[in-house]
Amino acid sequence: MIVSHLTYYIQTMKKNYFVLIVFAVLLVACGNSGKQAANGSDEPVFSKKSDDGQAAQNEMEIADIVKQWQGKTITLKTPEKEPGIEKLVEAFNSQWPTLASSGEKKVDAANGYMTSFVEGQILEACFWKLANGHRLFAVSFDQPDEPVISAVMFYDYDPAKGTLTPTKNGVLDFKPIFEGSMHSFKLPQKGKDIIVDEYIPGWDKAIYHIYKFDGKTHNLAGSRIQDYDQMFKKYKDYDDMYKSEDATFAKFALVDIDEDGNPELWFRSAKGGDGAFYAINGGNVSLLITENYHSVLAFYKGAIQQSGGCGTGCHMAEFVTLKDSRFGSRVNWYTQYSMDGEDVVEEEYTKEGKPMTKAEGEKFVKSLGKDIDPNPVWHPLLAD
Questions:
Q1: CA–CA gap between residue 45 and residue 17 (Å, rounded)
Q2: For labeling, which of 45, 166, 177, 382 is most exposed (least CB within 10 Å)?
Q3: What distance in Å separates the CA atoms of residue 43 and residue 58, rounded to the nearest whole number?
């Protein structure tokens, strides 16, 4: 069984902090063949040597490889039209030897995929066939121990020259969407797409960024959220008379409403008419509040407000508070105006369904302070 990069990565990181983790990671497949040429005359810079000065003396730090790989071409010792995955990895290791180079190998030659694993370091590689007869070859590393590194490299293999040349790829533009998250590049053993797992420690859940292969390179198609189906069910079951029956979400944003360093999750439909807010802490998910075409949202430090009409002359506001990414309380405020809209005929505050006095309700609203702009950055959601 091939160990998932991120699973091992997280387990090791958590072990360093004496915390047990149980985390299910989406496994995907990859495979084709990939080659590419690149050969430079400059010698690589080595920064790690073994005590005995023998074979391990050429092991390089992954951080050094990350700094240098794009400036080096690699030539296979024996150029081949269609070299297998082991030949390509061998050529890569000859230029960039690492601890994982001599690790336990698992090879799927038919799908052009392999991994090499040692305690503290994982190498993964695969290739794709290109229409021009070349191969796109990729190598990824995960090192969960200090210094923590996750990296991926791409090469174009030219069968005429037997060379691997560093090449651009959309995956190289990946940037985590939340500061403080951990990520891992997952190359496919079957199929063609690459998934970047971004794990948010405070959630104990991951976001899976999907990079689709277009025949030449990989481009970001969107992201999936771990346990999204369970989250969406909470939304569908939530009592909101104005939500669309056929509502689906097409985008998401991470916003830290309570400023605890752990983000809340905000889903919205394509046109923004329907949406839902969730607090996630240690794997536990709470639906905080929903929005619909009928409502307006306002945000405060540690609170969200949804307000809108509730019939002729009726106005409602719902407030949800949270702290440390956990649901706090729910307060509702209903106001009924006269037909001319000038006078308040009836006003009611409730907390968790229990009546509050007007003074208590007004004190609560005042305690929220000035509203804030959460400045959401929206990302495409793949919910299928």
A1: 33
A2: 45
A3: 12
Q: What is the mean pLDDT of residues 260-270?
A: 95
Residue 46 Cα distances to 57, 119, 193, 243, angstroms: 9, 21, 33, 60
Distance of CA 311 to the CA centre of its chain: 41
Q: Calculate the CA 188 to chain-centre distance.
A: 17
The length of the chain in residues reads 384
Coil, strand or helix: which one is 63?
helix
What distance, in Å, lies between the first and last C-alpha atoms of the chain? 27
Find residue 331's DSSP bridge partners: 319, 351
Q: Can you give the pTM of this predicted structure? A: 0.83
What confidence category does residue 245 fall into, taking pLDDT thresholds of 50, 70 and 90?
Answer: low
Tokens standing for residue 159: 């069968």
SS (H, E, C) the chain: CCCCHHHHHHHHHHHHCCCCCCCCCCCCCCCECCCCCCCCCCCCCCCCCCCCCCHHHHCCCHHHHHHHHHHCCEECCCCCCCCCHHHHHHHHHHHCCCHHHHCEEEEEHHHCEEEEEECCEEEEEEEEECCCCCEEEEEEEEECCCCCEEEEEEEEEECCCCEEEECCCHHHHCCCCCCCCEEEEECCCCCCCEEEEEEECCCCEEEEEEEEECCCCEEEEEEEECCHHHHHHHHHHCCCCCCCCCCCCCEEEEECCCCCCCCEEEEECCCCCCEEEEEEECCEEEEEEEECCCEEEEEECCEEEEEEECCCCEEEEEEEEEECCEEEEEEEEEEEECCCCCCEEEEEEEECCEEECHHHHHHHHHHCCCCECCCCCCEEECCC
Q: Is 195 helix (H, G, I), strand (E, B) or coil?
A: strand
User: At 383, is the pLDDT very low, low, confident or very high (cuts 50, 70, 90)?
Assistant: confident
Looking at residue 130, its pLDDT comes to 97
238 vs 258: CA distance, rounded Å: 23
Q: With CA atoms as reference, report the closest residue to 333 among 355, 317, 344.
A: 317
CA 52, 56, 57, 60 torsion: positive or negative?
Answer: negative
Digit-coded pLDDT (tens) for 302-328: 999 999 888 788 889 999 999 999 999
